[in-house]
UniProtKB/TrEMBL annotation:
This is Putative mitochondrial import receptor subunit tom40. PANTHER family: MITOCHONDRIAL IMPORT RECEPTOR SUBUNIT TOM40. It is found in: Mitochondrion outer membrane. It is a multi-pass membrane protein. It comes from the Eukaryota. GO terms for cellular component: mitochondrial outer membrane. It comes from Kockovaella imperatae.
Length: 381
């Protein structure tokens, strides 16, 4: 079909053969495609959303709680922005020794544009780390991570691919894959939207460390959110220009995970305002008696909050074991920040304390940084 003012393309020499093949398979493919189109239309009428990936199921919790943010001792991060578009940055990270972690140094570099992210680093002991993300389209992303150790048998390679459908996400991941014998640890996860608020899925792990050993286990997942914003989907389109359901940012999110061992993890996150987030994490630890130790039936609940001020971010949390922690990141200028981290475990009568600084310099002018979105222009008088 041609648009107004456009001529129909002239038939090629293969057109009669293509028409013959189409007519041959039409009685079989026609009913299948009609059934699929009706099923797809039925799902669209339900108002289903794009639920995100299983990997990011508890991403909001990790942004609030201190597991990925707290530190002990003293640290300093010095970074230099070489370019803003494409982004290229060099980082030097120093950490002084503490009671649980020795002193360390890490040199890193990051390169990123709209489709590609390349990140690498090397520490003082010679361990090399790398990460690469490639966005092929609005629905497909490939990720590669690797670590090279100077000791045999400790290096790691991980390859992952995420496919985001209109109402589901499918992820395939493999760690240290063996190309000839299929050994390694392989992951398959699927999360599908069942209603505008509920998504269900699973994650299966196939452990194949040796050709003679094969173990599988499956976790079951659920995600419940507030009602989606009907205008969120209008902001995303596919490469062909068609509307594409995009992940939205709900006011609250609840997740649950049933692990193969019978343990349960449940989380709840709520955005109270534009600057205040609260998060709750509940985990059980049920372990039968074995050669590894006695039986355990425990549970821990962790509650935390994050406050974003104009030039500072504060995180605080407390758990059912009596552990209280906090992290304050105070940014005095866009290029200098000071951090304080602390934790007190009342049940064990122990404490941890850390201080750190972050310094960032750039070879770019102020006008270039504003154009790249790295600085907010200050209005004139």
């Amino acid at each position: 079909m041609a648009y107004p003012g456009e001529k129909n393309p002239a038939p090629s020499a293969f057109t009669p053969y293509l028409d013959a093949v189409n007519g041959l398979f039409q009685p079989m493919t026609g009913p299948v495609m009609n059934t699929y189109n009706r099923f797809h239309g039925w799902k669209e009428s339900m108002g289903l959303i794009q639920p995100g990936t299983v990997e990011n199921l508890t991403r909001e919790i990790s942004q609030v709680h201190l597991a990925n943010w707290a530190f002990e001792g003293a640290r300093a991060d010095v970074s230099k922005v070489v370019s803003g578009s494409p982004a290229f940055q060099l980082t030097h990270s120093f950490a002084l020794g503490s009671s649980s972690k020795p002193s360390s140094y890490n040199f890193g570099a990051v390169f990123a544009n709209a489709q590609t992210l390349l990140q690498g680093g090397v520490d003082g002991s010679g361990v090399v780390t790398m990460r690469a993300n490639q966005t092929w389209s609005a629905t497909d992303v490939t990720k590669v991570q690797g670590q090279l150790y100077n000791k045999p048998g400790q290096s790691m390679l991980q390859i992952e691919h995420d496919h985001l459908g209109p109402h589901y996400s499918l992820s395939l991941k493999t760690m240290n894959p063996g190309l000839l014998d299929g050994t390694g640890i392989h992951f398959v996860s699927l999360l599908h939207s069942i209603s505008p608020r509920l998504s269900l899925g699973f994650e299966s792990i196939i452990q194949h460390p040796q050709p003679a050993i094969l173990e599988t286990s499956t976790s079951y997942l659920a995600k419940l959110t507030s009602l989606p914003n009907p205008y969120a989907a209008l902001a995303a389109t596919s490469p062909t220009g068609q509307p594409l359901s995009a992940p939205f940012y709900p006011s609250w999110t609840a997740t649950a995970q049933l692990q193969p061992s019978g343990n349960i993890q449940a989380t709840y996150h709520q955005r109270l305002s534009e600057k205040v987030d609260v998060a709750l994490d509940f985990q059980t630890l049920i372990q039968p008696a074995s050669m590894m130790g006695p039986a355990k039936r425990e549970a821990i609940c962790t509650a935390g909050a994050k406050y974003d001020f104009r030039m500072a971010t504060f995180r605080g949390q407390i758990d059912s074991n009596g552990t209280v922690g906090m992290l304050l990141e105070q940014r005095f200028t866009p290029a200098f920040a000071f951090m304080v981290s602390g934790e007190i475990d009342h049940s064990k009568n122990t404490s941890k304390f850390g201080v750190g600084i972050m310094i960032e310099s750039s070879t770019m002018t102020q006008e270039e940084m504003i154009a790249a979105g790295m600085l907010t222009p200050v209005p004139g008088p």
